Every structure is written in C-alpha cells, then in structure tokens.
Amino acid sequence: MSNPHDSASNGAVRPDGEAREPQRRSPGRPRREDRMPVRDEILKTASVLFMEEGYEAVSLSGIAERCGVTKASVYYHFEGKPALFTAAVIRMLQLALAGTRRVLDQEGKSLRLRLQEVAERRLSRIQHIEFEALMREASHYLDDRQRTAIREAEQELHDLLSLHFARAIADGEIRKGDSMLMAHSYTALLMIGNRQAAKNMYASPSELAGPIMDMFWTGVG
Amino acid sequence: MSNPHDSASNGAVRPDGEAREPQRRSPGRPRREDRMPVRDEILKTASVLFMEEGYEAVSLSGIAERCGVTKASVYYHFEGKPALFTAAVIRMLQLALAGTRRVLDQEGKSLRLRLQEVAERRLSRIQHIEFEALMREASHYLDDRQRTAIREAEQELHDLLSLHFARAIADGEIRKGDSMLMAHSYTALLMIGNRQAAKNMYASPSELAGPIMDMFWTGVG
Amino acid sequence: MSNPHDSASNGAVRPDGEAREPQRRSPGRPRREDRMPVRDEILKTASVLFMEEGYEAVSLSGIAERCGVTKASVYYHFEGKPALFTAAVIRMLQLALAGTRRVLDQEGKSLRLRLQEVAERRLSRIQHIEFEALMREASHYLDDRQRTAIREAEQELHDLLSLHFARAIADGEIRKGDSMLMAHSYTALLMIGNRQAAKNMYASPSELAGPIMDMFWTGVG
Amino acid sequence: MSNPHDSASNGAVRPDGEAREPQRRSPGRPRREDRMPVRDEILKTASVLFMEEGYEAVSLSGIAERCGVTKASVYYHFEGKPALFTAAVIRMLQLALAGTRRVLDQEGKSLRLRLQEVAERRLSRIQHIEFEALMREASHYLDDRQRTAIREAEQELHDLLSLHFARAIADGEIRKGDSMLMAHSYTALLMIGNRQAAKNMYASPSELAGPIMDMFWTGVG
DNA sequence: CATGAATGAGCATTCATTCAT
DNA sequence: TATGAATGAATGCTCATTCAT
C-alpha cells in the first residue's frame, strides 16, 4: 500500500487548461516540466463529468479515456470510484468556495451587489447537477468518512454565505432572520438556472441573475 | 401488438398498500387473489424508486423484486426502462398536479395560506430528487417523444402555479412581476427541504414550510 | 391434449394472398367465409420468415404479429417452435416439389429446356437460405421425428430430379452417370443465384439461368 | 483507447492445440504458462463455431467457455459480437485463400488436377455453413465496414479462382467462357459436400471430389 | 508510474413456453 | 378458439476492480 491514496485530500487547487488530446507519453518517468499533471487532470476531468452526468452515469474508463491514460492509471492515483468521486467533488466545492469568497470579501460594495456578482458567475457556468441529487445517488457507494468529508466541504460554502448574511443583519443592511436559511434560500434560487424552462425565458443564463436577486431581496409580497 | 405498451399513459391514481413478499409464482396466469393490478403496482414502485435514487441507480430487477414479480413481467407491461421511467415520472407529476390544484383551488383563503399548505404537504413527503437532475441523468436514454411528454407534464405544474400568481397580481394581493419566475422561485425554494443540512435545522421537515414561505414572501431586504 | 398438434403433418397446400394487416377480429368464432385461415396463415408467414432469416433469427412473436394474432394463438395451433418450423419447411418443400413436378412432367420438351424453366422460376423467387445451412442451425432444436420428416420431404425433390435424369440417361439424352449426383449438382448450381456477387453480374436474377444451365450441361472442359 | 479493438485485423495464422479445461483464474494478469495468446484462441474457436452453427446460434459465453476465459475477456479483445464475427470469418477466409493459392500455384500440374486437390482438401474439412446463408443471417448485425470487409475477403477467393480459369482459357486448357461464373460454379458444386444425403452416397467426403470434378469438367450433356 | 490483461457481478432485453380464463 | 398475463433461462454488454509486469 505504498500508493498515495488519500482519497479525501485534494492537492492545491489549480485552475488550468482544458483536457489535452491523449498524446502518448514515451515510457519511463517524464522529465519535470509538466510536473504532477496526471493526478490533477484526472481530478479535473472527473469533477466536470460527475457534475454534469451524476455518479453512476460516469465510468472510470470514460474518465481515463478523456485524460489519455488507462483505467489502471486512475486506480494508481485513486483508491476506487468512490474515492475519486469524493476527491473530485471536494475539489470542485473548494474551487467554488474560493471564488465565492473572493467576490464576497470585496470591500465597499453592498451585499446585494456582491451576491448578484456571485450569481452571475455561477449562472454563466455550465450547470452542475443539483448537489443533493448528486449526493443521494452517490451516497450508497460512499463510506462514512467520504460522506462526511463532502458534507463538510459543502457546509463551508453555506457557512461563508451565512457569515456574510449575519454581518449584514448586524449592520442593518438586511432584515433580521436565520442567516443559514438565507444562505440555503440563496443557493436554492440559483438552481433555477439549471432549468430548461427557465433558461428559455431569457436570452442568456446570466440575465437570470437580476430577476432572481429581486425575488431573493424583496420576495413576492 | 399483443402487449399493452402505451408508455405515456397512466391509469387511475390509487394510493394503496405496499409490495408483498416475493412469493414465487408458477408461469401462466395466476388466479386473481387480491393483488392490485400489477401494472399499477409496478408503476407506483418505479415512481418511488426513480424519485429517490435517480435513473441509472434503479434496476428493473430491483423494481420487479419489490413488486413480487419477475423482470420479464415488467417487460410485459412496459416497453423498456425508458418507457417505464417516462410513465412513472408522469404519473408522479400528475399526482402532484392534482394535489396541488386541489389545495390552490380552495376558495376564501389567501394565496399565501394556500401556498403554505402546498409547501407543508410537499415537505412532509419523502423527498424527490430535484427534477432537473433526474432529467439530465435520464435524458440520454429517452427518445424525443418521451422527453417531451415529461416536460409537458412538468410544465403543467408550473403553469398552474403561474396562473395563481397572475391572478394574485391582478387582485393586488402580491407585487407585480413575472408570474412564471415566481412559480419557479417557489418550487426552487421548496427544494431546500431535500437538504440534509436544512432538515437538521428543524425538528420536522414540514416546519420548514413557515420560514421558507417567509423568505418567499418578504425576501431578505 | 385435444389440440390439433400434428406437427409433422401439413394441410392442403394452398398458395394464397399475402399477410393481411392485423385487423382486429371481433370476439367469438368468426362466421364461416374465411374458413381455416389462421393456421394456414401462420404456416405461410413462418415459411417465408424461416427461409429468409433462418431458425433462431425468427421469433414466434414476430410471426404472430405479422399474422395479426397473438403468440398464444400460435401455440394453440402448433406445439412449439420446432414443430412450427418443421411444418413450415415441409410445406415449402412440397410447394416446390409440386411446382417442379409440373414443369418436369411437360411432354415433348427436352430435359434441358424443362430444367432451364425450373431454374428460371427458382431464380426469380425471393431467395431461400441454402437448405443445409438452415437445417444445421435448426437441427439442435428438432427431435428425430421432425428431422426425418424434413429430410424425407427434401429427398423427394431430389428423387424427382434424379428420376428425370435417369430417364434421360436411358433415352441417351444425356451422358451416363450417377443420376442422384446430377440432381445434387443441379440444385447446388442454382444456389449461385443466392450470391450477391453473382447477382451483380447480371441485370436480373433469372438471366443467370442460361449461363448456369450451360455450365451444368457442358462443364468447363 | 486502451483496448486493442481492431476488429478486422487478423494476426499470424497458427494452427494449434485445442482449448483446455476451463480452470478458473483469479483476476489480474495471470503468469504466462504456455497458453497460446488468448486473442488468437478466441478467434480460432469463434471461427469454428460460427462456421458450424451460424451467427445467432453461437453465444459469446459459449466461445468464452470453450477457451477457458470469461465473457468479459472476450469483450476485452473484441468490441462485440459483430466485430468478433467479422474477425473470425475473415481469418477463416484468409486461411482458405492461402491454402487454395498454395495448391493452385503449383507448377507443371494441369488445372483439373489442381482443382481436384483443392476440392479434396475442402471436402475433408469439417464443413462450413454455406457462406451466403451465414452472411444473410449475420448481416442484420454488422455495420457497413464489417460487411464490406468480409465481402472483400470472400471476393479474393473467387478472384483467385477466376484468375486461374482465365489463364486456362488463354492457354486453351478449357473452353471459353465467363471465368468468374466458372469460379462460382466450382465453389457451388463443392457445397454438395455439406449435404447429408450426398455424404451418405460415398464412404468418405473426399471421395466426392472425383465425381464432382467430373460434373464440373464435362457437365451432363 | 503505468498499463495490459483478466475477472465477477450486474443490467437491459428477448424469447419460448405455460396456463387460467 | 383464442388470448392476456406471467415465467425462467439465456444473451449481449458494461463496469469496477485486481494484479503481474
């Protein structure tokens, strides 16, 4: 067991280029230049695929093929499908967390403006499967450690949002209330962006951001 | 032409007892006993399973087993997995539509109260996978007719909600705005009920209904 | 066992119209007019399909559907697939025997001319699978009685040809030799008509009859 | 791209020992032992089975079992049943082509003697299903590339024969005529060797060669 | 690090067959 | 006569996983 199988860990978050075409490497360890690429590439590819298609629908051979490596290579880097899934989802959540934090931490902008910016960014991305749906499908296959690790990573996102709502309440910027529920309401409303019917109502997905923020801010009453 | 394969149809909706233990039957038509019509039982079981676990995660043998019949029987009644899925989802949507309409059509109650009642009912049910996630997973396997049939059934639900929002706008009961977006916002917020983290915040799922309705009605601003 | 299952028998040979569209009959026994149609129709349809596609490739539901009856009806009329196959093949062979006999028995025509006429008729028909191939595939499933019955029916065809060759030898119309081998050579050469490559060499299949008869009559030497 | 799926290829042709008893192996790569390369063994087994029993009648599990491997192994080496069939049939045709060429290319022997030798060899082999029958059955399942590849391999055999007939015509060794039709007549007559009835007429199949060659050379006239 | 070759379990689907009505 | 509803067995195929090299 000398393999680097630390399924729930995840290396430094590195946004990088798109999947390369499977250029056959010559045998033996490659000279440095493209350091530590394979594990990361697998992770990145897996993230995208799992988010787009769910757990069962994604096959390890599919991932391997897209990365130009073999299935066995994937098994060298990750303990198995559940471990890879865990790592991939966590990677994605941390990316989202970092991005969201960067926007929310801007000084001198109203909360509403910052939330709108977050919304615009998320809505313009290729849409992810709703998180709970993904988890429900996958959780049969995950063990407790894995489930918990993912839940925690997700919780961080809501914690971050909740924190900012709490601050805004303290500042009188928004009405009083349960800041965590506000966080969940916010992310739930963003899910409208996944819906075909809703997307058809506007020219581009990010145009949904305004109307959704209106709903979130003023409600229907 | 001897098979009753009309995948998109759905018999009378009858909520009733759960699947019995799988007592092996010999071939040929069994004497009637009690047994609810098998086709209906399959449909009901399939609805539940697909909603709970997604498309791929549900196997036809699983469904068959739960109904106490063989896989081949399922194939006698439905053309295949996609057809069964289509029928099951539509059945479920029509159930939901009927229930929702019954509540919303009540006279003399404010829209808010009626919406809250709908929310309570839905939140207390075993939760469904988010609809879009389910469709994204399944739609690889569905043909155009099936996709359309499902989409239409779902649209009816939002049409119904939208109609009531439009009326309320006309009556000055709520603020002006895009009634269809309101409908989507409402159902999106109900999805919070699927979230483990959110459920942990309250004693029972239906207690979420109040706070969610507050969010929906007044927003955070 | 009051069913009329006499698998190896075959009713009167009746060339008749093509398969009708499955027009639902009203329940109850139909009034006389179209007497004894179902069994025959099944037999006819089965003949065509088995000859065109082989044994395994043809399903009883396929046959039933084409006849506008149910699978169970097929089972009412025939003991099972092997029995139906046996009856169908024998029916077809007897048809061929009758047709061939009619041509060969013509008075005042040379054997060569009569053989050429037989060849033209056969080549212009939708082509049958080579008989031995069909039998090899099917014989796993047939019992001894069935195998024998088919073999005998086929033998009659070669007996008929052989008889005419023997007569021609006696009359000095053709060279001396094994008349049964001549019969087999003749039918073997006709199989060229089944070959795509050969068919492409001529405008219409029946144009093959001349050249093939030349080969048969004079050889290459 | 990790699978060696090149369905139409065919490795070096090596006639060798039969399949061993299916000793269950544990997963992972087995230590070499003797074992002929598995891919080749599958191919050889498949050739025999398809030729003997047709397309549908042969199951991949049957092939796997005879080779002492699992179905999944067959799928590792071949894309699917159609691909395996294609490879197997082409392998067999190329074997036949090579053998036939070897005999026909002998110097200093009359065409008739060489053809007789080819006939003796073929007739003494376990008999193949008639080729067209096989193709008719299989072609539903093959794609265009596969169909073409097989057709071409078969055409080569007739091209070879046709070439030798053409030469013999030029040399005045045989009568003038369509050399390709001669080739087809020759192979069609050899099919007599498949027939039970014909085989019963002689002590051993290869004794059919003489009489058949007589027919081919001098006809009945 | 990486992979080629293999396995076992499971799945969707089809089919011949049976039997109560 | 005919059929609707059911079964059991088989088939083609995919997938996660393993291991010697």
UniProtKB/TrEMBL annotation, chains A, B, C, D:
Biased composition, class Basic and acidic residues, residue ranges: 15-38
UniProt-listed SUPFAM superfamilies: Homeodomain-like, Tetracyclin repressor-like, C-terminal domain
Provenance organism: Paenibacillus pasadenensis
PANTHER family: HTH-TYPE TRANSCRIPTIONAL REGULATOR RUTR, HTH-TYPE TRANSCRIPTIONAL REPRESSOR KSTR2
Disulfide bond as UniProt keyword: no
Keyword Transcription regulation: yes
Annotated spans, Disordered: 1-38
Matching InterPro entries: DNA-bd_HTH_TetR-type_CS, Homeodomain-like_sf, HTH-type_TetR-like_transc_reg, HTH_TetR, Tet_transcr_reg_TetR-rel_C_sf
Protein name: Transcriptional regulator, TetR family
Bias type Polar residues, positions: 1-10
DNA-binding region(s) in UniProt: 59-78
Keywords associated with the record: DNA-binding, Repressor, Transcription, Transcription regulation
One MF annotation (Gene Ontology) recorded for this entry: DNA-binding transcription factor activity
Domain HTH tetR-type as annotated: residue spans: 36-96
